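[audit] Reproducing an earlier prediction to check determinism. Same input, same settings, fresh worker. If the tokens differ from the archived copy the diff job will pick it up downstream; this log only records the rerun itself.
[audit] input (298 residues):
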Amino acid sequence: MAREGLCFVPDAGLAVPRRRVHAHLTTLAAAFPEARRLTDLDPLDVSPLLGSRVRELSGGERRRVELTLGLLRNPLCLIADEPLTGLAPADQQRTVRALRDAAGRGAAVLVTGHEVELLMQAADEVVWITAGGTRVTGTPEQTWRHPEFVRDYLGRRGRTELETASKPHPADPDRSRAGDVGSGVSPARRSSRVCRIWLPMAGSAVAIWIIVRLVMAAFGAAVGTPLRAGDGTPSLWAAGVTIPVVGVCVLLSWIDHLRRGEGAFLSTLGVGRGPPFIAWTATCLALEMAAAAVLAAL
């Protein structure tokens, strides 16, 4: 769905804490040819944050980065969960304008939130979620005249006067879209995607495999197991049993993946749960085969 044009910005956890902001932007550009550049679109002023790691940012700055990633994705459909939460009032206003601009460029924009006055400025149609169900209340003007909405959601306070004008979102006829990621893209673009997305996964698997092998070798040396058995074949601790070793390495890679918090960002890039496991498994299997070939040649 991400490759078809859907972008989901969750209420938190989209950006990877250990990565720098500019690394997110370069990875996004490598995954989607149609993605915009920060030099062309920076509605939330994240340029000063490019050199910072996400974990070094405040909550509001992190939220601005996450929303900017969704906007730069240039999606056909943008779903933003609680986009205004944690933002300063001025940044909330800028976010509302940025969402309207995205709709004006032809994107279908769906947002959720509790900042009623601000969301009413952005919305063309309001759906009220209450009591386990949904009610389509219509335009913002109609919603403000809905007695149950005003009573149950807004409380007893008076109706806020909003200057909400009609906001059509005409489709941009000049807007060109690429289909599936990797479809019709240049070899350079595909190479960039491999370098930015897949090589870090393989690199983490390589590091984990080396650590596992070193631990096995140290344990074998501690118990006095030689590198070769009496018949000259590699011993268990030297060669190991490939499938269990690969399984342990893949499991540790998955745990490291969860620890890094990369899942939400990769999902936004159109990478599901299966491809990382394939990358880790293939990498560890290749290392096991290479190690077995080296031991056989010794």
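[audit] rerun output stored. Observation attached for the diff report: The first helix runs from residue 21 to 31.
[audit] end
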